[in-house]
């Protein structure tokens, strides 16, 4: 059974840190941050313009990479190989859609695939951290 208190605590701690970081960014670079955030959709559209499904090609790759990572972590503990495979799945899904394209289209697909692979990895880690209670094993041992 899912521990809702633990889920709420994880959301509160992640949200608090995120809001503090956002406040610092806005306080130091408010106008530039807003301009950059407003230009992000145009950047994504420009990179995914040559893909068959446009933006959705990257979204599908992100979801597939995330699904693989969640499945692989269910049968194997921490592994760098699983994380690398997750990123490679994101890249592969987008690159397969761009087979036979020009050099610039393939390079754009590679960038979208990298973002999709890392996005899938982080999305999976965020969901797993909120739903599963895992012990922290990276703490240094005290004497």
Description:
78% of the residues lie in helices and 0% in strands. With 143 residues, the chain is mainly α. The protein has 2 domains: 1-39; 48-131, no CATH class. It has helices spanning 4-47, 55-75, 80-97, 103-131. The model has no long low-confidence stretch (mean pLDDT 81). The two termini are 36 Å apart. Helix 3 (80-97) crosses helix 4. It is flat. The chain is built from 4 helices and no strands.
The overall number of domains is: 2
Poorly predicted runs of 5 or more residues: none
Q: Structural class of the helices, strands and pairings?
A: mainly alpha
Oligomer: single chain
Q: Report the mean per-residue pLDDT as an integer.
A: 81
In terms of DSSP E residues, the strand content is under 5%
Computed Rg: 18 Å
Helix content: over 70%
**Element order, helices and strands?**
HHHH
Shape: flat
Task: List its salient traits.
single chain; about 140 residues; mainly alpha; 2 domains; 4 helices; about 0% strand
